[in-house]
Structure formats: C-alpha cells, structure tokens
C-alpha cells in the first residue's frame, strides 16, 4: 500500500502501519464498541519522544527524558550552535548554505532520498506539503536554527528559496540585501494578487505607491530631497506620475 517514501514518512511520524490481519482484527473490536468514533493507532513511542513540539495529546503518551546533570552533560560532545556554523560559512555563500539546509529537511519530511530532489524555486504545495508536513518542517527548522518560527511558515514563505532568505534575515539580518528583501516581498505580493480578482481599490493603491516611489526617485536623481517639499508639491508630483494633471 505504501511506497518507500510513504513508509519512511510514517515511521518519522511515529505511526506504525497495521498489517492486513491486525487491521481486520481491530475493525472487529471497533464494531463491538459503543463509542461512535474510534481511532486505532499503533505508535512508536521512542520515535514520538524524539519529535519536537508534540501536541498535548501525544505528549501525554511519552515519558519525559531524565534530566541530565551538569557532569553527564559535559561528557557528551555537543555540536556548535547553528549560528556559529553559519558564521563559519563565507558571507557570500550563506544564502546557499541555508537553502541546502532547508532542502535537506524538506527531502526528509517528504521522504525523498536526497536534497538534490528538491527544487529551490518550486512551491511547497507543489512539492506535496500539507498541514501536517508543514508543521513537521517548522519543528525541524526551529530545532536546528533556534529561531521561533510560526506554524504558517511555508505559507508565508512558499518555496525553499523564499524560506532560506527568511532564515538568513533572522540569523544574519546585517547581510540581507535591502533590494533583494523588497523584491522577495513583491514576489509574495504578486502571488497574493493573483487570487484577489479585479479590484479597482487595489489597483489605485498600487498606482499611488508606485507614483510615490517614482516621485522620490526623481527627486533623488535631481538632487532635490522631499523633506523640504510642501504637501502640495508632493501631490503635484504624484498627479504628474499618474497623469491626473
């Protein structure tokens, strides 16, 4: 019933597949029960305990690990923090490094054999993500990077490349190209607008923003700042850009 990728995904999720025989046995048991709804699950509690950010229902099924003493903790070699690992990468290569990290986790979550199978510019939904795998990816990246990431992560940043750029902004904000950040936001806005329909209010707002941007750019190129301009002069510039005067 399951391919290798599907079986690997189940094992990571701590759900153990039923055999045909055990499934039929459980069906007979459920048919004899008075409860209106039953959910038969076979869980690997060890795999469940290894997951980050478990829901309360599952967390109650896992025994919390014994707290380590300072002595035992010091005996275990700890890898460097993620920010330190990122800092060891040349600045020009950090975006690509983070993209590889994201692609690696995406490949694991989706059950692919290699990060090379994941296209950086392809949307998460096109890659096969759903709400459960979205949360699993968020949890894995939170655990690795130490950043607090929202459950809506893949919807706010809908491709591995977008997500890697977001992680770079959180981990090394001083290295983010301002123009690239704005362009990334415009890409996201473009995707939102595709489903917004025909709205004159939206179009008018966009034209106004663009006119202001052009007016500022024109003033900067001519050497005249807008700080000294009156409100009427600014509106005249916008009207000229929109062809209203």
UniProtKB/TrEMBL annotation:
One Pfam family linked to the record: PP-binding
GO biological process: fatty acid biosynthetic process
InterPro entries reported in the protein's UniProt record: ACP-like_sf, PKS_NRPS_Biosynth_Enz, PKS_PP-bd, PP-bd_ACP, Ppantetheine_attach_site
Annotated GO MF terms: fatty acid synthase activity; phosphopantetheine binding
rRNA-binding among keywords: no
Regions crossing the membrane: none
Keywords tagged on the record: Phosphopantetheine, Phosphoprotein, Repeat, Transferase
Protein origin, superkingdom: Bacteria
Domain Carrier as annotated: residue spans: 96-171
Protein name: Carrier domain-containing protein
Organism: Amycolatopsis eburnea
């Amino acid at each position: 019933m399951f391919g290798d990728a599907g079986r690997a995904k189940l094992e990571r999720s701590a759900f153990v597949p039923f055999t045909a025989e055990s499934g039929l046995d459980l069906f007979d048991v459920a048919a004899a029960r008075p409860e209106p709804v039953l959910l038969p699950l076979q869980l690997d509690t060890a795999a469940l305990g290894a997951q980050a950010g478990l829901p309360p229902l599952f967390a109650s099924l896992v025994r919390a690990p014994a707290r380590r003493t300072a002595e035992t903790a010091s005996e275990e070699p700890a890898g460097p923090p993620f920010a330190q690992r990122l800092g060891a990468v040349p600045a020009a290569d950090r975006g690509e490094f983070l993209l590889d990290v994201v692609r690696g986790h995406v490949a694991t979550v989706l059950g692919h054999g290699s990060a090379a199978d994941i296209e950086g510019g392809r949307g998460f939904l096109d890659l096969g993500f759903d709400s459960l795998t979205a949360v699993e990816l968020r949890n894995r990246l939170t655990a690795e990077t130490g950043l607090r990431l929202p459950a809506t992560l893949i919807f706010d940043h809908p491709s591995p490349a977008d997500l890697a750029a977001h992680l770079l902004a959180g981990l090394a904000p001083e290295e983010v190209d301002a123009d690239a950040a704005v362009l990334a936001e415009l890409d996201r806005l473009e995707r939102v607008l595709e489903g917004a329909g025909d709205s004159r209010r939206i179009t008018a707002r966009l034209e106004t923003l663009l006119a202001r941007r052009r007016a500022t750019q024109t003033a900067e190129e001519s050497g005249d700042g807008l700080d000294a301009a009156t409100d009427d002069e600014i509106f005249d510039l916008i009207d000229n850009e929109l062809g209203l005067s």
